[in-house]
Write a structure and sequence with these properties.
Blueprint lengths: L12 E6 L3 H11 L4 E6 L10 H12 L5 E5 L8 H9 L2 E2 L5 H6 L1 H10 L3 E4 L1 H5 L1 H7 L9 H6 L4 E6 L4 H14 L2 E6 L3 H11 L2
Helix pairs in contact: 2-3
């Protein structure tokens, strides 16, 4: 389903965002001089429990929405099965397009090509590389139960690192993480342009 039309906004804007892309959003905002944008982030760990995302977004909107002239949500559906859209539709609030953040971080066409090339791909971003142990290893219990690796990742064939920055240290970490999961490694530099392109029609007012 298409989200509410992206229209130019002026005045104060709340960008309610997933914490996993907060650094990228702040960088894009500052580089574009979007001084009217205020970013508030929800915990990135919600991605491990996507059923909790709609309620968390709803509570934040109830607390913050009246303080801003406009609100936009920097989430995709993120595994909520349309329930996030129902929360946003009730309030007339738009969000980023797509089913998950990897599509708008890579760009829709580029992500579709990667998924078609190898459906069994596990995707990493700069944030996930930095916080791999906390969100993936400990978050999924692999530190306590290593045997779960086959349960979680047995149907994957490769790790695809969608890099937002050309950071050699992060690239090495991502490769080591792929080795740890026993998967092939594929690197794709995306930069901030795909996410910026998704935000610009909405936030540049």
């Amino acid at each position: 389903m298409e989200r509410p039309a992206a229209r130019a906004m002026s005045g104060s804007v709340l960008l309610l965002a997933c914490g996993a892309i907060g650094r990228e959003l702040a960088r894009i905002r500052d580089l574009n001089g979007w001084t009217h944008i205020r970013i508030r982030c929800l915990p990135a760990s919600l991605h491990n429990t996507p059923d909790a995302i709609p309620a968390a977004v709803e509570a934040s909107l109830d607390a913050l929405q009246d303080a801003f002239e406009h609100v936009f949500v920097a989430y995709a559906d993120c595994g909520t099965g349309g329930r996030l859209d129902r929360v946003l539709d009730e309030r007339g609030v738009g969000r980023l397009p797509g089913a998950h953040c990897y599509a708008f971080l890579a760009g829709g066409a580029a992500f579709d090509a990667l998924a078609e090339e190898e459906p069994g791909s596990f995707y990493l971003t700069d944030f996930l590389v930095r916080h791999f142990d906390r969100l993936v290893v400990r978050g999924l219990g692999l530190d306590r139960h290593p045997g779960l690796r086959q349960h979680y990742f047995g149907n994957y064939r490769r790790v695809v690192y969608l890099a937002q920055t050309a950071d050699a240290a992060l690239r090495r970490q991502a490769r080591a993480q792929a080795d740890r999961l026993g998967l092939d490694f594929h690197y794709r530099f995306c930069g901030d342009r795909p996410l910026e392109s998704a935000l610009r029609p909405v936030l540049e007012g």
